[in-house]
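Weekly structure sync, notes
Attendees: PL (lead), two postdocs, one rotation student
Agenda item 3: pending single-chain targets
PL asked that the sequence for the first pending target be pasted directly into the notes so everyone works from the same version. It is reproduced below exactly as submitted, 310 residues in total.
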Amino acid sequence: MTRPRTHLLPHLALLGGLVSSCSAPDRPAALPRELPEALQELVAPDSSRVIRVADGVFYRYLWSPRGPWAIHLLEADLTHCLLGVEVAGAGAGVGVDARATVSELAARRGEVVLAAVNGDFFTPEGRPLGPEVTGGVRQSGRERPAAAFRGGFGLPWIGITGVSAQEVDRTGWPLGGEGPRAVHVVGGFPELLDRGKRVGDLEVQANPSFAASRHPRTAVGVSLEDRRLWWVVVDGRQGTYSTGMTLPELTALMEALGVEEALNLDGGGSSVMVVKGRAVSRPSDEDGERAVANALLLVQDPVFCPVPRR
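Predicted structure, written out during the meeting:
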């Protein structure tokens, strides 16, 4: 008996819209790379779709009955100098006034945003738990696991760090500067991979309800060898559509992608991936996207490219 693939219906309609809005009319779209064999073996997807978002950027949707899992992957080839990552903070305020949805945060930055995911965990007052730097300006300096980005200056950095008034600790990256080439930092917890090795037991013993139970998840990872950035969102708490992942399962997915550095971001109802202004994942809250403290934005901007010498 053939199983009806109702899990694909909303995504097929959405992906059709992305094709029309993302494919360049003046030349054929670049072909995506094949997904690693290790990922195919781990996930065993029953169905998959891939869409070219921009040069060097691809969105993939995988559905697997093993979880079941609905997995959203955003792959960015950082050898393309037009690409950079920014942190968008929701802004000043307290409580609800200090939060905004990822779609809203992406829309504030405008059409240069190719994709976005939710960022750090946050307090009921809307303050991120870890460090936050937006556009070279420190918003929070607390030492926690974090990801740091500098447009046009190489690969992101992932590790435990704080932010002083002058620089990002442990990296020596100075704060200040304006525009897309400024420093950006977002916190998360826990760090999943460091130089290709799992970090401890991924909080399984200390917090099993958080780490060893399946929840919606969001994570960021970097493949150092081929200079690729990966964003992962796994839908969860949605029955036979998708249950979510444990942190060990999420880390195994990152390992299968070939990622050496990875950080878990806020999950649960906060998890969402937005591509070209549209939410491609299914947030678990009944009301849809949850207002969050900050978000990661993948931006396409010529300012990231080095200025040629004359």
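Discussion points:
- The chain has one domain: 6-304.
- Residues 6-304 form one domain.
Action: rotation student to compare against the earlier draft before next sync.
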